[in-house]
Amino acid sequence: MNAHSSVYEQDSNDRLQILDPDGNVRPDAEVPDLSEAELLAMYEALVLARRFDRRAISLQRQGRLATYAPMTGQEGSQVATSYALDEQDWLFPTYRDHAAKHVHGMSLTSLLAPLRGYREGYAIPDGVNVMPEYIPIATQIPQAMGMAWGFKLQGQQDRAVLCHFGDGATSEGDFHEGLNFAGVFDVPAVFVCNNNQWAISTPVERQTQSETLAQKADAYGIESVRVDGLDPLAVYQATRGAVRKAKDPGPGEGRPTLIESLQYRFGAHTTSDDPTVYRPDDAAEYYRERDPVDRLRGYLTNEGILTDERQATIEKRVDDRIQTAVEEAESLEADPDDIFEHVYDELPRRLEDQREELRELREKYGDSAFSEVLE
Amino acid sequence: MSSYADTVRENVEAAGDETVSVNQQELHDHSAETLSELTLVEAVADALYTEMSQDERIMVLGEDVGRNGGVFRATDALYDEFGDHRVVDTPLAEAGIVGASIGLALSGMRPVAEIQFMGFVYPAFDQLVSHASRLRSRTHGQSNAPLVVRMPYGGGIRAPEHHSESKEAFFVHEPGLKVVTPSTPYDAKGLLTAAIRDPDPVIFLEPKLIYRAFREEVPESSYELPLDEAAIRREGTDISVFTWGSMTRPTLVAAEELAEEGIDCEVVDLRSLSPLPIDTIVDSFEKTGRGAVVHEAPKTAGVGAEIAATIQEEALLYQEAPIQRIAGYDAHMPLHALEDFYLPQALRIKEGVRDAVEF
Fold first, then answer.
1. Nearest to A200 among B71, B162, B341 (CB)
2. Per the structure, how many domains does chain A have?
3. Which of residues 45 through 74 in chain A touch B, CB cutoff 8 A?
4. Which of A367, B98, B223, B322 is most buried, with most CB under 10 Å away?
5. Which residues of A touch B96 (CB under 8 A)?
6. Same domain, B144 and B166
7. Which residues, listed in sequence order, are joined to residue B325 by a DSSP beta bridge?
8. Chain A residues with beta carbon closer than 8 angstroms to that of B69
9. How many CA atoms lie within 13 A of B221 on its CB side?
């Protein structure tokens, strides 16, 4: 497959776009109503995401993190979708949506903790409305629908739920069941399909014979929009509109929306994956020219909002924050008792016995005796 | 047609990797005795390759099994050799993969489906337990579902959440399914070959912890191992330790260390979890009078419970001590920082065996 046959390249008029690859506002496009401070904050989140991604990959290579799912090329859409949420809205992320989680309130340390093997990173801090990442594909979609349904049933009109998933997820039954329910019960949900065109080694053309993923919404009677996922302002606008409609639909409008955010997975599926086995890299340059971070930077520079000095300040600030988070994550310590905590509200007798058994073994032999290589 | 080992050798030569010990002379000699040194995951690919070369009805389907050769390379080289009609990258849908496999089997094909990790099999559970397992009984024996569902299982590789499960008991509990798991490359090829040729649906569990742990001589030609026979990996007189898959090696390590303490373990690698190789279990137990079971899955209602109950039924009067279940705890598989504390290993195996012997 080459760049010119990809779904991204096919027809650029079929999707919402605001910025051209150099960050110029397209003719007839309207820039979303965001203040300079908001635009700069969004840009800083993008720079943070890009540099976090690089650092995480590097840490994984050094054996300091386990398998990591990179997001380079997709962080523009992640940051923009979370910026379009209100604080009280809920986010259902996948294992790749690090930047989306962070913008909606999860600390950088909490993003790193599971990659160090600690479940603490999945905990939902008070006041933060982010579910733990979903790894089994598409399973979050009916759940996000259900939460949105529940908010509607309880009259919480100011709440929406945003659910992320990839192009591969549209092949799972859960996607279809979730969207169908969303239409039937008219729930305040925004389904964001991050179409990065690759489900590990399987190109999106192999997932479906449909021309677009957005059109799958038609089957369920819900609205859809296709957006250039490498254009952060366009993603913001599409998502903001969907969130508003979810909470306060106009006459004849339904609440749920499927957003197909067209992207490209610049890197590997995870650090365990080698895309050179199955994917020619002739598309890479095409997408690098449309890089979401560079594009927003171009716009902000053109507008005189971003200066070299501000850029340097931002880079220094995000690097410091990443460094602090890495140090915090690396200082976490495992407590084997944690294996038994939180399985149930109350520990059943057998689990209590098992916890005691492990405690006695640790006391007798020491923790280092448990780290023998199993194989 | 070239053999799987030829392909591996070519790949190794192309990569300039001299650390892989492939006997060049033997690889060029296509006699029945030809052997190659394979890892367990290579033996899986070898079995698929060899069977597909001989039977055009056999096809492989799943997520990333084609061009990518599988996320663990268990279907390496198949796509290039057999093409995209027989080595099929499917849409991402486990229920679709297994449901399609049942239909393919009904049409006369012999599908070998891959579920990428055992923790992702649940969407396909309905297809397996409501249909694959009972097609034979529902049609009064007139139809069957000769398919294999391969899936890597187990922990110990520092994998993300949902990538380390051992849920064999779900499938053992379902009548009509066979469940097998190898612990060596030689067994992997022989058991998978037999599974592909078997007229009933077979769940083939691959211990990913030892996919590449060691190499072993594997015949290049086809051979089958019976799907219902255990292997005695170490003979002993004091206690029978029953295990399978990736727990076999730590159990053998524990047995050697216990031998220095004067405890002589018999280590039985079940290989087949359904049907259970009851005769071997009972014979071994009657010899030693003491038993332990080692598995990664949670203790409660694990296969260890079935083995202990079977021994009570068949050999009660030989029993000299409670049967020890050395298993995962009744909690979810933790993220990797704690997995060494969750999984049985030589330390816990030795402790459990001593409890049984000193009872």
1. B71
2. 2
3. 66-67
4. B98
5. 171
6. yes
7. B293
8. 277
9. 8
Range of the domain at A357: 336-371
* A-contacting residues in B 212-231 (Cβ below 8 Å): 213
* A362: closest CA of chain B, how far (Å): 9
Q: Tokens representing A44?
A: 């800083």
Residues A191 and A118 placed together within one structural domain of the fold: yes
**pLDDT string in tens for chain A (375-residue length):** 344 457 787 666 789 999 999 999 999 899 999 999 999 999 999 999 999 999 999 999 999 999 999 999 999 999 999 999 999 999 999 999 999 999 999 999 999 999 999 998 999 999 999 999 999 999 999 999 999 999 999 999 999 999 999 999 999 999 999 999 999 999 999 999 999 999 999 999 999 999 999 999 999 999 999 999 999 999 999 999 999 999 999 999 999 999 999 999 999 999 999 999 999 888 889 999 999 999 999 999 999 999 999 999 999 999 999 999 999 999 999 899 999 999 999 999 999 999 999 999 999 999 999 886 555
- Owner of token pair 């690759």: A198
Instruction: Please tell me if residue B166 touches chain A, with a CB cutoff of 8 Å.
Output: no
Task: Identify the burial level of A307 via C-beta atoms within 10 angstroms of its C-beta, where 0-12 means exposed, 13-18 middle and 19 or more buried.
Answer: exposed
Helix axis angle, B303-315 to B278-288, nearest 10°: 60
Domain total in chain B: 2
Clarify whether residues B11 and B119 are in a common domain.
Answer: yes
User: Which of A12, A17, A32, A13 shows the shortest CA–CA distance to A231?
Assistant: A17
Catalytic residues of B: 163
Shortest Cα distance, chain B CAs vs residue A70, angstroms: 14
Could you give the residue numbers annotated as active site of A?
265, 269, 278
Is B226 a domain residue? no
CATH of residue A137's domain is 3.40.50.970
Tokens encoding A367: 């923790």
Residue with tokens 């379009």: A84
Distance from CA of B343 to the nearest CA of A (A): 9
Does residue B149 lie in a domain region? yes
For residue B255, what are the domain limits? 231-357
B264, with CB counted inside 10 A (0-12, 13-18, 19+), is middle
Of A134, A146, A220, A208, nearest to A176 by C-alpha is A220
Q: Is A48 helix (H, G, I), strand (E, B) or coil?
A: helix
